[in-house]
Design goal:
Low-confidence stretches: none
CATH superfamily: Aldolase class I
Number of strands: 8
Radius of gyration: 18 Å
Strand order of the largest sheet: 1-3-4-5-7-8
CATH class: Alpha Beta
Distance between the termini: 32 Å
Structural class: alpha/beta
Length: 207
C-alpha cells in the first residue's frame, strides 16, 4: 500500500494511458498492419499480472484506454482489467469491432461502470464489410442498439457510445452519409482518423 502511494506521489498527473491488452484479432481489415504482416505477426495477450504492475500509475491518470491493434474482447481477463482501472478512480474505455459482444458481455460492461465503448467502422454500407473483413456493419449497429437497451433497462448512462471511424481516401464521400447512418443511436462522439502506414524493415517484426 505504501509503495503504491509513494509511486503515485512521484508520478506526474497523466490525462491518458493507452494499454494494448491483446494483439489477437478476429478481423482482417485490409488497411491494418496485422493483415499485411499476418504471416509473421506475433499474437499474444497482455497478462493480468503485467496489467496490475501498471496500476500504480492509474491513481494519477484520468483515462485508461484498453486498445491496440487487436480486438480487446479476445483477452479473457479484460473484465478484471476494467475493474482494476475503475477501482483506481479512472475513467475506462475501449474500442471494439463488436463481433464478440452479446447480451451477457454488454450487461457486464454496463454494470462495471465503464465510461466509453467505441465501435470501429470504415464505411456506411457494404463497403465497410469489404474493408473490415470478418466484421459486419449491421452487427455493429445491432450491438449499439443492444447497449442502449441494456443501459436504459439498468438505469445507467454509461458507457457512452463512440464511433472510431477510419477514413480512407477511396471512400471520402462516405463521410457525408455517416450522420444519417448513426441517427437515433445515441452516439455521443465520432472520432474520424486516417492511417499513414509506411512499411519499413523495423515494422516487419512484432515485439
Amino acid at each position: 500500500m505504501l509503495g503504491k502511494w509513494f509511486d503515485s506521489f512521484l508520478l506526474p498527473p497523466l490525462g491518458w494511458i493507452q494499454v494494448e491488452v491483446t494483439s489477437h484479432c478476429n478481423a482482417a481489415c485490409v488497411y491494418c498492419p496485422r493483415t499485411v504482416y499476418r504471416d509473421i505477426w506475433l499474437n499474444r495477450n497482455l497478462s493480468f499480472s503485467t496489467f496490475e504492475r501498471l496500476s500504480s500509475a492509474f491513481g494519477n491518470t484520468k483515462m485508461i484506454f484498453l486498445q491496440g491493434w487487436g480486438e480487446p474482447f479476445l483477452n479473457p481477463e479484460l473484465m478484471q482489467m476494467i475493474q482494476v482501472a475503475k477501482d483506481a478512480g479512472c475513467k475506462v474505455g475501449t474500442t471494439t469491432n463488436g463481433m464478440l459482444l452479446n447480451e451477457k458481455i454488454v450487461s457486464q460492461l454496463v454494470k462495471s461502470g465503464m465510461d466509453v465503448l467505441a465501435f470501429s467502422l470504415a464505411g456506411v454500407d457494404e463497403n465497410n464489410d469489404a474493408l473490415r473483413r470478418g466484421t459486419r456493419m449491421e452487427n455493429v449497429l445491432g450491438q449499439i442498439r443492444l447497449l442502449n437497451k441494456i443501459k436504459k433497462y439498468l438505469g445507467k448512462e454509461q458507457p457512452a457510445v463512440h464511433i472510431a471511424y477510419m477514413l480512407l481516401r477511396s471512400r471520402l464521400d462516405d463521410i457525408e452519409r455517416l450522420p444519417l447512418l448513426l441517427q437515433g443511436l445515441a452516439v455521443s462522439q465520432v472520432v474520424v482518423s486516417t492511417l499513414d502506414f509506411i512499411p519499413c524493415n523495423s515494422s516487419s517484426h512484432s515485439n
